[in-house]
Specification:
With about 325 residues, the protein is of the alpha+beta class. The protein has one domain: q2cbj1_9rhob like domain (Jelly Rolls, Sandwich), CATH 2.60.120. Strands 2-3-12-8-15-7-4 form a seven-stranded antiparallel beta sheet, with helices on one face. The chain has a four-stranded mixed beta sheet with strand order 1-11-10-13. A hairpin with a 5-residue loop joins strand 10 and strand 11.
Length: about 325
């Protein structure tokens, strides 16, 4: 009897050792395979789940790329900008030589006395006296008083006497008979303006004074921050005077506003071949002369505040392209 009981206990123990251990709900056991899979699983996203739909992914990537492009464009523009004539400078004479473009060389080649010693740009701040600047400013104020400011740019053509007035092109010389826009001394102001700018060109470029002739158009400009109503109002696009005005071989600009006081923006910016933009700050009475070919690709910075006044006078080497002086 006792041997039978002993045999049964032995069978029970043997059976229990063959059975797999059961997992309890409180502490699940993990195999080596489970641990390896847990270690290989990707970490949870730090900033939440990624978009699951293709449209969401495209949208988020588009926003990221656009932002990066804006940052690159902004920083590249700032890095390649260099001041050529700062407002705080008192410039007696400042020059920068450039290589003449083939188009400019071809335009002046037939006129031996009009071929420049070099191409480039030249800035002076004391070409005109304070009295001369005051008289010219008074003339500009009388002229632009007649024109309603509709768009971003108002232009008065000296030779033709034309300006946009209330959406129409009006001849101010004819209108002068009833409105008395111009005064007797204005003719002297014009002659003095043209003569000094002509001498500036001849002295810097080392060409014969009498080989230069006034070219069309010669104009006054008033620029502001308003939206452009016409394509001609978009003054901020890059331009080459020789292409834009055809008969220009040499250009001059006389600034009639102060940068930082009268206006924000409005700088004259040259886009040079060395991948550098060189800036000229407007300053009342500051004059700049430059060759009009492709070596002087430039644009006027858009005005952000205030009003920018200036006078542009071009000169040609070809006497057949010369224009007569207006009778103010």
């Amino acid at each position: 009897m006792s041997s039978e009981v002993t045999q049964r206990k032995g069978d029970a123990v043997s059976k229990s050792t063959k059975e797999e251990p059961k997992e309890t709900s409180g502490s699940p056991s993990k195999t080596k395979k489970d641990k390896d899979q847990a270690e290989d699983a990707p970490p949870k996203p730090k900033f939440g789940p990624m978009p699951r739909f293709s449209k969401q992914r495209l949208w988020s990537r588009g926003i990221l790329i656009t932002g990066l492009l804006v940052i690159v464009w902004y920083n590249s523009g700032k890095k390649n900008e260099q001041s050529f004539a700062d407002f705080d400078e008192e410039i007696t004479a400042k020059a920068m030589k450039t290589r003449c473009s083939s188009s400019h060389e071809a335009a002046v080649k037939p006129f031996s006395k009009c071929i420049p010693k070099q191409c480039g740009r030249f800035v002076v701040d004391n070409l005109f006296s304070p009295q001369e600047i005051y008289a010219l400013k008074d003339l500009m104020e009388r002229v632009f008083k007649e024109g309603k400011v509709e768009g971003a740019a108002s232009v008065f053509d000296f030779q033709l006497g034309l300006m946009q007035l209330e959406g129409e092109t009006v001849d101010l010389y004819k209108l002068n008979s009833t409105r008395k826009i111009f005064q007797k001394g204005d003719q002297i102001i014009y002659q003095n303006l043209k003569g000094k700018l002509q001498r500036l060109i001849s002295s810097y470029f080392a060409i014969d004074h009498w080989s230069l002739h006034t070219a069309a158009p010669m104009f006054m400009t008033r620029l502001n921050r308003k939206f452009a109503k016409r394509e001609s109002d978009e003054y901020w696009h890059p331009a080459v005077h020789q292409k834009q005005f055809k008969t220009y071989q040499y250009s001059t600009v006389l600034f009639m506003s102060d940068y930082g006081t009268d206006i924000e923006g409005g700088r004259l910016i040259f886009i040079d071949g060395d991948n550098t933009n060189r800036t000229v700050d407007p300053k009342l009475g500051r004059a700049i002369a430059f060759s009009s070919g492709e070596e002087s690709l430039h644009y006027t910075e858009r005005v952000r505040k205030g009003t920018r006044f200036a006078v542009t006078v071009g000169f040609t080497c070809n006497p057949n392209d010369a224009v007569l002086d207006p009778k103010l």
